[in-house]
Amino acid sequence: MRKHAPYQHGSHGNSTVGYEVGTMNIGPALDNLKIRHELFDYYHTPKPQSQSYLKWIKKNIAAGQPIVTFVMCKGDSHTGDGNAAPFDHIEPAWGLYSNHPLSDPEIYEDDYVLHGSDYSPDGDKNLGYFRKFNSLVDTVKMDGNCKNAQAPHGLNEAYPCYNDQTNWGAAIKGLVDPKNVTLPLSLFVDNWKEPNVRTGEKPIEMTATILVKDLTPGKKYVVYMYESAEAYPSNSLFHEAPHKFKYPFTAQKDTFKFTAPDKIMSNEMAYYICVPAKE
Q1: 196: part of which helix (H) or strand (E)?
Q2: Please, which contacts does 261-266 make with residues 24 or more away whose CB atoms are closer than 8 Å?
Q3: For 95, 103, 142, 246, which has the most beta carbons within 10 A of its beta carbon?
Q4: Cβ(113)–Cβ(136) under 8 Å?
Q5: Residue 57: which of 134, 154, 155, 144 has the closest Cα?
Q6: Residue 236, CB half-sphere, CA atoms under 13 Å: how many?
Q7: How far, in Å, CA of 51 to CA of 68, rounded?
Q8: Which stretches does DSSP call E strand in 60-184?
């Protein structure tokens, strides 16, 4: 993602390895990656913003849209954008648990969110971190909800907090598809490790498993894989665009799961979509 993020003030990196993603360049980075998204409107939301932010997170996860959140971590400096924004780390949030209708925008005492830390295997052995929504907010002093969070680096990310005054985030809505012809698709990989190739570590191979939903039994479909943002067709002309491989199939039920024949390298890109077969 960094190679698609434009430079913003205070971001680490360079034009060769890319720039660190921050609050001001995450939108352009997602645009460059051809990912549809909704940014939290920090500019127009009255302060303190934290309750509005929690409701925004709940609304989007309830709609099946995971969130990129900007969090503060106990013991860190909270200067993620060079003192311009109080955050230390970027983490995903994708799960929601509530005893109330998910269409209810209010935050309740027993509402939980599921998030990752980017430092642990959020897969088979660790399904992520379950937090009550109302335990997620703290000041920059971190002497409230995050007072007893563990440090040092790599541990405090497991129990982060959102800033009580100003917040940022991006809800991920899927790949660009102006004609809305793609089917809901989830991608799973068999290894959570991501070697840091910028420091000389070697990339690893990953096996991709694809799950497609909302299929019509008896109908023919095709899964395409494109190997870069540049190759991905943002005009919805998926059959005509050059692709790395395609996987045609006939749906037997409303879901279809298979293992992709080609490996993914951890330092490369892969865009998977499923569309009805060309008649």
Answers
A1: none
A2: 262/208, 262/225, 263/205, 263/206, 263/207, 263/208, 264/189, 264/205, 264/206, 264/207, 264/208, 265/203, 265/204, 265/205, 265/206, 266/191, 266/193, 266/194, 266/195, 266/197, 266/203, 266/204, 266/205, 266/206
A3: 142
A4: yes
A5: 134
A6: 10
A7: 17
A8: 67-71, 89-97, 112-115, 129-132, 137-138, 162-163, 169-175
* Alpha carbon separation from 157 to 3, 115, 120 (Å, rounded): 24, 10, 10
Kind plus residue range of the DSSP H or E element containing 57? helix 50-62
Task: Collapse the DSSP code of 39 into the 3-class scheme (helix H, G, I; strand E, B; otherwise coil) and give the result.
Answer: strand
Q: What are residue 249's DSSP bridge partners?
A: 221
Tokens linked to 31: 């645009």
Q: What is the mean pLDDT of each run of 10 residues along the chain (279 residues)?
A: 56 61 86 95 95 97 96 91 81 96 94 87 65 96 94 83 96 97 94 80 93 98 96 96 95 96 89 95
Helix, strand or coil, per DSSP, at residue 44 = coil
Please tell me whether the peptide bond between 152 and the residue prior to it is cis, using omega within 30 degrees of 0. yes
CB 195 within 8 A of CB 201: yes
Name 186's bridge partners.
Answer: 211
CA 215 to chain centre: 24
Apex 59 CA angle, 100 and 158, nearest 5:
90
Whole-prediction pTM: 0.89
Q: In what order do the strands lie in the sheet containing 185-189?
A: 185-189, 208-212, 256-259
